[in-house]
């Protein structure tokens, strides 16, 4: 799974906004490439983190909080689920994604029983 992140704590300069917009436009080409290679299995962009709710159950009580429950400035903005022959191909796919140039991409294997 490719998890697309960026630092949500800082405002973006005009150049950074332009770079992010260009990266978003480049996503369509990357998606077509992953589909043609048979790698892409799904994915989605996520609404901003300030629209999130975090749920935990402790002692049979449901606890809700607004926003993400994370001790980090990095926020998840979306994901793509790939099925690649191996980890090298997954890293190559991530390196080719336009978001790698403006944010960061966590590449994580999916837990399989």
Topology, element by element:
Layout: E1 2-7, H1 14-36, E2 40-45, E3 53-58, E4 61-66, E5 74-82, H2 87-96, E6 104-107
Antiparallel strand pairs: 1-5, 1-6, 2-5, 3-4
Shape: globular
Compute the number of structural domains.
Answer: 1
CATH structural fold name: Alpha-Beta Plaits
How many β strands by DSSP?
A: 6
CATH architect. name? 2-Layer Sandwich
Keywords for this entry:
single chain; 113 residues; alpha+beta; Alpha-Beta Plaits; 4-stranded antiparallel sheet; two-stranded antiparallel sheet; 2 helices; 29% helix; globular
3D structure, described in words:
With 113 residues, the chain is α+β, with helices and mostly antiparallel strands. It has one domain: Dimeric alpha+beta barrel (Alpha-Beta Plaits, 2-Layer Sandwich), CATH 3.30.70.1060. The chain has helices spanning 14-36, 87-96; strands at 2-7, 40-45, 53-58, 61-66, 74-82, 104-107. The model has no long low-confidence stretch (mean pLDDT 84).
Question: Nutshell version of this structure?
Answer:
With 113 residues, the protein is of the alpha+beta class.
